[in-house]
Design goal:
By secondary structure, the protein is of the alpha/beta class. The chain has helices at residues 10-23, 35-43, 46-49, 69-79, 102-107, 118-127, 144-157, 171-181, 193-199, 206-211, 222-238, 257-266, 296-299, 316-320, 344-347, 352-363; strands at 28-34, 54-61, 84-88, 111-114, 132-137, 162-166, 188-191, 214-217, 243-245, 267-274, 278-287. Helix content is 40%, strand content 18%. Strand 10 (267-274) and strand 11 (278-287) form a beta hairpin.
């Protein structure tokens, strides 16, 4: 048995399910913030195994999905600048901006390159000193430290043709906004595992303290998720909401101090625009003035010649807020498919629409 198989043990899963079914009496909406959890829940058919009165709802937790069209349009504008090389992770390539996508821009001649890490982007910059290499930084607290490290490395090398367009977002502020809005009544939250590995489980203390909602941090294997739901059910039934973790092999209460220091060195909080939600103060990360030489937002005069717009008929904004499901969208499976995605939730590997598309039909 390898390490991963140990977290997919069917006998242990059955015991956890029996515990949940025996203890759970109260109907509850439980939101998984992270798109990785959404995919795991669908892949292993966990929704159908839980008691019917426990409803799992997909939240906003896919950084590509929550990136606003206006920000994607800035990326497209950068891709059109002569001499600029756009580098980014694969999920972003096919995401539609208001009028095109990086995939289409590349087909039309733009220099757009998929990378697996920021180290690849740095290498491209070193190998192309006559080009301006821009890394599109989209992600939550999980990926932001690696991008901060790339900026520090570029500064150490005095690499003058590398920069980052920082579209990073941080997760606690948007969680507060969703809970304050109250569009969906929640009794429990599955907190994001990888984000919590950076910021620490203590970062979610506001959920039980301010909102009286049960919560626990989860990993991404089926036993992780079931153990997390088990902890949340125990909190709900006992009436004692608190922060617990079912992902202790990766998450500490205080987080990762080295990563947090790196984030604080390179970035500072800023407002960020979230798809379907709008601008949220303090929910973004902008590059500090000390590293302005690596800030694409300052290096390039990015102007949009057309107003940004959302894809007609697309419900990604509502899906992100959990007020709609992908199956509520008239475009789902008909017009919008992985081969022809209309919105980002169908493109991203962590998108709710993609998870429903690939797994819901099998489960049904």
């Amino acid at each position: 048995m390898n390490f991963t198989q140990g977290f997919r043990d069917s006998a242990l899963a059955q015991k956890l399910l029996e515990n949940i079914r025996r203890k759970s009496k109260t109907p509850a909406n439980i939101m998984e913030f992270c798109g990785g959890h959404t995919v795991a829940i669908f892949r292993y058919g966990l929704r159908e195994l839980l008691p019917p009165h426990l409803k799992l709802l997909s939240g906003p937790g896919c950084p590509v999905c929550v990136t606003a069209s206006a920000d994607l349009d800035k990326v497209m504008a950068l891709a059109a600048v002569p001499g600029v090389v756009i580098t980014t992770f694969g999920d972003l390539i096919k995401v539609p901006a208001s009028y095109s996508s990086l995939d289409r821009a590349r087909a039309a001649g733009a220099d757009v390159r998929t990378v697996y890490s920021t180290l690849d982007a740095l290498d491209i910059a070193r190998q192309n000193p006559d080009k301006k290499v821009v890394f599109v930084g989209i992600g939550f607290e999980t990926t932001a430290p690696t991008i901060a490290a790339a900026i520090l490395q570029a500064a150490a090398e005095k690499l003058s043709n590398f920069s980052v367009l920082s579209l990073h977002k941080v997760t606690p502020p948007v969680t507060k906004v969703l809970l304050d809005a109250g569009e969906v009544k929640l009794q429990g939250i599955i907190c994001p595992g990888h984000v919590s590995a950076i910021i620490g489980a203590d970062a979610w203390e506001f959920i039980p303290e301010r909102y009286g909602i049960a919560c626990a941090v989860s990993g991404f294997e089926p036993l992780d998720v079931l153990q997390c739901v088990n902890l949340i059910v125990e909190q709900i039934e006992a009436g004692t909401p608190k922060v617990e973790t079912a992902y202790s092999r990766a998450v500490k209460a205080e987080g990762n101090p080295i990563a947090l220091k790196m984030l604080d060195t390179v970035f500072e909080p800023s407002a960020a625009n979230w798809r379907g939600i709008g601008e949220i103060p303090g929910s973004g990360l902008k590059i500090r003035s000390e590293y302005a030489a690596y800030d694409a937002d300052k290096l390039f005069d990015i102007k949009l010649d057309k107003p940004s717009r959302e894809p007609a008929g697309c419900l990604c904004g509502e899906v992100i807020r959990a007020v709609k499901t992908p199956e509520d969208c008239k475009l789902f499976r008909k017009v919008c498919t992985p081969e022809n995605p209309v919105g980002p939730c169908m493109v991203s590997s962590e998108g709710s629409c993609a998870a429903y598309y690939h797994f819901a039909e099998v489960i049904d």
